[in-house]
Design a protein that fits this description.
Blueprint: H1 11-26, E1 39-44, H2 50-61, E2 65-70, H3 81-91, E3 94-98, H4 102-111, E4 116-120, H5 126-140, E5 147-151, H6 156-167, E6 171-175, H7 184-191, E7 196-199, H8 202-206, E8 211-214, H9 226-232, H10 240-243, E9 250-253, H11 265-268, H12 275-293
Parallel strand pairs: 1-2, 1-3, 3-4, 5-6, 5-8, 6-7, 8-9
């Protein structure tokens, strides 16, 4: 079973992974030999901290092994992607890849004869959002009926939050500057199953929100537009003034954060900030994702 986008998974699939992640988190020792003699190939075209460490630690703690492959120092950078993946998938039990274009993760999945997990692409970041949903569920003991406000760039994180929240019954409001809206097709998908609101003013989106979420204004691969983006996002910093418009909301960020830009120090360091809970839950969510994709649990 692949995980390329949360749109490929049903609400039941997502719910079962979140439930399993909570069980594993509560009693990790029970799962120490679940993936004995299983190997994960981790393919990295983009840099990573949390994705790499959480997946590698997850495999180790489940009794398996993870192999790190840097795109630029392997023949992934030289040969046909199809040929390389066909070879790699004969050596391992599951592949996780962190790429630039979403078409690349789709090509990897098409060529592979083992499950493929999207560790991040320019369109989607499903592993991150599963950990985020796990974190919100822990804080409220539910997902359905909550309101999450996303403030910032309509990027891969925003796209995936739209789908994930919609499938789990979470109302989502998105505020972006004009020209930075999330993918239109993704918005239409989300609107089929949940209430979705789009704004061009952050203050409107965060009203009565249970959770406020933001991300970097300049994602990897967008460095050439850095100055323009920072100028376009002036006034969009999630600060204490903005948080006061919410229902004493929790603050979330997938990290790395650029303090003073998309979020102020006072917010990310506040008692309502749960960014490090999110980060920790990448580990527990990755374990559940691996077991789900390998159809072991």
């Amino acid at each position: 079973m692949n995980l390329l986008t949360l749109d490929d998974w049903s609400s039941k699939d997502i719910g079962s992974v979140l439930d399993l992640a909570q069980v594993i988190k509560k009693d990790p020792k029970k799962y120490y030999d679940t993936l004995t003699n299983k190997t994960l190939a981790m393919l990295f075209w983009k840099t990573s901290t949390r994705t790499r460490i959480s997946f590698e630690s997850a495999m180790t703690q489940l009794g398996g092994h993870a192999q790190y492959l840097d795109w630029r120092t392997t023949n992934l950078a030289l040969g046909s992607l199809k040929d390389e993946i066909k070879c790699i998938s004969r050596y391992v039990d599951v592949i996780m890849a962190r790429v630039y274009g979403h078409a690349d993760i789709e090509a990897i999945a098409e060529a592979s004869n083992v499950p493929v997990i999207n560790g991040l692409s320019d369109m989607f970041h499903p592993c991150q959002i599963l950990a985020d949903l796990l974190t919100v569920k822990e804080k409220f003991n539910r997902l359905k009926g909550l309101k999450l406000a996303y403030v910032g760039d309509g990027n891969n994180v925003c796209n995936t939050l739209l789908i994930g929240c919609a499938k789990m019954g979470v109302e989502i409001s998105v505020a972006t500057p004009k020209g930075y809206e999330p993918n239109k097709k993704v918005v239409e998908i989300a609107k089929k199953t949940s209430k979705v609101s789009l704004f061009n003013k952050p203050e409107e989106a965060v009203k009565n929100a249970d959770v406020v979420y933001t991300d970097t204004w300049v994602s990897m691969g967008q460095e050439s537009d850095k100055e323009k983006r920072i100028n376009d996002f002036k006034g969009w910093t999630v600060d204490s003034r903005m948080m006061k418009l919410t229902k004493n909301a929790y603050f979330m960020h997938c990290l790395p954060a650029h303090r003073g830009y998309e979020v102020s120090d006072e917010v990310i360091d506040s008692k309502n900030s749960i960014v490090y809970d999110q980060a920790e839950n990448r580990l527990h969510a990755q374990k559940a994702i691996l077991l789900k994709c390998l159809e072991i649990a």
